[in-house]
Specification:
Belongs to the ribosome association toxin RatA family. The protein is an alpha+beta fold. The protein is built from two helices and eight strands, in the order βαββββββαβ. The termini are close together.
């Protein structure tokens, strides 16, 4: 079983509470997802985030292909982190941790995504040229949108890394 991990780090000029209020509101995910992905929340995002919350989405990972994605919010520590896990969707495993930490002048946000692709060796073959490339584009888009919305902290570079586990 081949697993992968993506880690994205970004520092923004806003308070920890403002960051939490924005990032922990599931409805805001659509605002920081590229439009070409056709991301739409179908249900479950009408209340503040809580452990056990189930959220249904539809997304188009590739042109002409639409799929449902169901995630569960499994852990929430108010103002510090939350975890979402795929219950149904395009990945064999998707475990996404979102951390918010106060730093001088703002916050550092860290996303850690552990994921596994379906289809065995075909999934592994598609990782580099397709999946890793797409995840890179999605997280770079999010970074740009958040920088535009809240302002980047000077002197704190963003980072995006992948590794095989």
């Amino acid at each position: 079983m081949k697993c992968y991990q993506l880690q994205a780090e970004q520092s923004l000029a806003l308070s920890k509470q403002e960051a939490w209020d924005f990032l922990s509101n599931p409805a805001n995910l659509q605002r920081i997802t590229p439009a070409h992905m056709g991301f739409k929340i179908l249900e479950g995002a009408d209340r503040p985030m809580y452990p056990g919350q189930i959220i249904h989405y539809v997304v188009s990972p590739f042109p002409g292909i639409r799929t449902r994605w169901v995630t569960e919010i499994t852990h929430v520590r108010e103002g510090e982190y939350f975890v979402d896990e795929q219950r149904f969707g395009p990945y064999a495993l998707w475990h996404h941790k979102h951390f918010i930490e106060a730093v001088e002048g703002g916050v550092r946000m860290t996303d850690v995504v552990d994921y596994k692709l379906p289809l065995g060796w075909l999934g592994r073959l598609a990782h580099g040229p397709v999946v890793k490339r797409q995840l890179t584009a999605i997280f770079r888009y999010r970074e740009a949108e958040l920088d535009k919305r809240f302002g980047k902290l000077p002197g704190r570079p963003s980072a995006l890394t992948f590794k095989s586990l």
